[in-house]
Amino acid sequence: MGNNLMVRKVAYEADVIRLTIGYDFYETASIAEVFSILADNHINVDMIVQSVMDGVKPIVSFTIAKEKFAESLRILEASKVSLGFQFADFEVGLAKISITGSGMVFGPGVAARIFARLGKGHIPVKMVSASEVKVSVIVPQDEMMQAANMLHDEFALIH
Fold it and tell me: What is the value of pTM for the model shown?
């Protein structure tokens, strides 16, 4: 299968913020309730990455739009005790780059090519999410256009 049959489009979105919540123990984490309270307040959460490993305190990171940042932080801090987390941290100045196309699940190596190309350009990947039709990465916003152009070139897409 050729590249252009697998990867069809590169899209990007600026002003993404990553929120990270840390817990002392997985058993005390109310992760479902975190996302429920945000949904109840009309805050859309995009990418979600949870990390739970033996001997390491569990965390969950997720992205939101910049305009919902202050409200999200206020809601989380106000509910900190009931939600059971120990800290909430954030990172601003991020962007999301998405590679979309049908059949990517049948084309092994798409994610590897994304990481390799961005790595060659010294663009750090802060988060990643993948499905059958899309791979999205979070990168520094000031490198958003460079990253998008690199991936256009990598997959031989027309600019």
Answer: 0.86
